[in-house]
């Protein structure tokens, strides 16, 4: 059994801590209870787009990845129908940097129109790569809609059509957050 401690902060954040003093590596994993199930049917793909925007910097740090890499860290994220998960791995001695970076983007995410424009293009390319530019790639798009006729699982996390991401404005994305 893995020994861990769990508690809830006053702001509602649930924390689970497992410490291994023999490891020189630490992992910070932040999971938000937000996924594509929380989107409107005419604005799909927003949870995934927002995941990408979280790497666009904050008021204090213009490039999240750079700041983490400077202390030997690496990171990534993924979005599902139910959650969005961000994680970083770095030397344990620099764990405080990861906490600071996460809190900074939680409190002061950049709402730069250029960041939105870049990330819209990235997400649209992902949509094309995974669903449109390979044999039977659109099968998942069609299958979801057949399997779930009413439930928000009827569209994939990436969205049901590119136009939803193309038309997204900063106000739309901010409202989703």
Set down the secondary structure blueprint:
Blueprint: E1 5-8, E2 14-17, E3 25-32, H1 46-53, H2 64-69, E4 74-79, E5 84-91, H3 95-108, H4 113-132, H5 139-147, H6 162-166, H7 170-176
Helix pairs in contact: 1-4
Estimated share of beta-strand residues: 15-25%
Helix content: 25-40%
| Global outline | globular
Strand order of the largest sheet: 3-5-4
Radius of gyration: 18 Å
Structural class: alpha+beta
Give unreliable regions as ranges. Answer: none
- Mind summarizing the main beta sheet? 3 strands, antiparallel
* Terminal-residue CA separation: 36 Å
Q: Please count the beta strands (DSSP E, at least 2 residues each).
A: 5
The pLDDT mean sits at 93
What letter string, H or E per element, gives the SSE order?
EEEHHEEHHHHH
> Helix segment count?
7
List keywords for this structure.
single chain, 177 residues, alpha+beta, 3-stranded antiparallel β-sheet, two-stranded antiparallel ribbon, 5 strands
Write a brief caption for the model.
The protein has 177 residues and is of the alpha+beta class. It is built from 7 helices and 5 strands; from the N terminus they run βββααββααααα. The strands form 2 sheets. Strands 3-5-4 form a 3-stranded antiparallel sheet. The protein has a two-stranded antiparallel sheet with strand order 1-2.
């Amino acid at each position: 059994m893995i020994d861990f401690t769990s508690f809830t902060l006053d702001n509602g954040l649930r924390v689970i801590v497992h410490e291994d003093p023999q490891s020189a590596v630490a992992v910070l994993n932040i999971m938000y209870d937000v996924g594509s199930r929380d989107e409107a049917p005419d604005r799909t793909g927003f949870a995934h787009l927002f995941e990408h925007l979280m790497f666009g910097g904050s008021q204090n740090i213009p490039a999240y990845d750079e700041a983490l890499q400077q202390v030997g860290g690496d990171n990534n994220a993924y979005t599902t129908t139910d959650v969005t998960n961000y994680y970083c791995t770095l030397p344990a001695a620099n764990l405080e940097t990861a906490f600071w970076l996460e809190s900074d983007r939680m409190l002061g995410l950049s709402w730069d129109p250029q960041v939105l424009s870049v990330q819209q293009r990235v997400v649209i390319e992902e949509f094309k790569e995974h669903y449109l530019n390979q044999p039977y790639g659109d099968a998942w798009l069609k299958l979801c809609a057949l399997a779930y006729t009413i439930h928000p699982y009827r569209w994939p996390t990436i969205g049901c059509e590119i136009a939803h991401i193309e038309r997204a404005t900063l106000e739309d994305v901010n409202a989703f957050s």
